[in-house]
Amino acid sequence: MDRIRIPYQAIAQIETFGISRLAVLQQARLPISLLQDPRPVISTSQWFALWRALEELNNDPALGLKMGSVVPADHYDPVFIAGLCAASFREAINNVARYKQQFCSEDLRIFERDGLWHIDVEWAASQEPTPALLLDGMFASYMILGQRGSGQALFPEQVRFVRKAEHRALFETFFHCPVEFEAETNVISFSRQTMETPFLTFNPDMLALLIPQLETQLKGALAQQTLSSQVKALLQTRLPRKQPMMQDIARELNISPRTLQRQLAKERTGFQQLLDSARNEMAQSYLQTQSLDLSEIAYLLGYEEASSFHRAFYQWEGISPGQWRTSHLNHMVKTSGQ
């Protein structure tokens, strides 16, 4: 579903940086009633418009980093607390990624490659570029989560931005690592050792109280979608780790595999069709990233052999993955040159 539930404190926080909330909403052409709504919900395009308005009204290039770093103790939401109470930094990021799904169409992806753990984000309801300030705030918040939980000065190994280079020294000073601009994708990368750092704030008793509540809320949010869209979303979050089986997804949805098959049939689809569709969409996304070779993409899609990925992709698109990548890149070059 295309929805973003804005934390109420996020709107209030704007004032602490000397920017009028009213001016931002007006610039973004959003309803002024959001100032009174304790649980405002907007679309992804409206969320992006809010951040673009902040960019237009702000002259501080570090604003996004500051907003992502400042979370007053009395404003911690349950999802952030579930992160802080985790046993390690990696578990914290996984908790945040999972439970944000209940109120945000943001898809936070966490995957390991070349000895590093990478975190990037996609938006299910938008093909627009992520606003720079929003991305800065998100990456800053992940780093700050690791630092607050571990009590250590954890920093990424590398940060990459798609946008053009600007204020490089500012970002490299903040993140304490090389920052690449004009990259193929927006991603923040941490070492395996950093991701496995234990949290001093680990609190299993708090997690025992929070997790059942968050799971119930997440299932309620997913229940508003069609079963096929739920299954597809679950497949896409699990494919980078291993190929999910029908039994795994059925267990996640708290139904039997036979019931899952029957209900998907009512929606005129099936588990294998959804798995193929999820893989196809993810394959096309990965193929747009030139730094990934075809064998790596095959692995990320849950294939044991690259040849299996080649055969499947040819069945989906009628051309090989390499041909699709070349065709897409040529189209992008022509489009950018117009």
Describe this structure in words.
With 338 residues, the protein is α+β, with helices and mostly antiparallel strands. The protein is built from 17 helices and seven strands. It has helices spanning 8-14, 21-28, 44-57, 63-69, 78-84, 89-99, 132-150, 168-175, 192-195, 204-223, 227-238, 246-252, 257-266, 271-287, 294-300, 306-317, 321-337; strands at 4-5, 41-42, 106-113, 116-123, 158-160, 179-180, 187-191. The strands form two sheets. A five-stranded mixed β-sheet has the order 3-4-7-5-6. The mean pLDDT is 86.
Structural class: alpha+beta
Supply the number of helical segments: 17
Helix and strand run: EHHEHHHHEEHEHEEHHHHHHHHH
The radius of gyration computed from the alpha-carbon positions, rounded to a whole number of angstroms, is 21 Å
Q: Shape, please? A: globular
- Percent range for β-strand residues: 5-15%
Tell how many strands the DSSP assignment holds.
7
Largest sheet geometry = 5 strands, mixed
What is the helix fraction of residues, given as a range? 55-70%
How far apart are the termini?
Answer: 34 Å
Q: Average pLDDT value?
A: 86
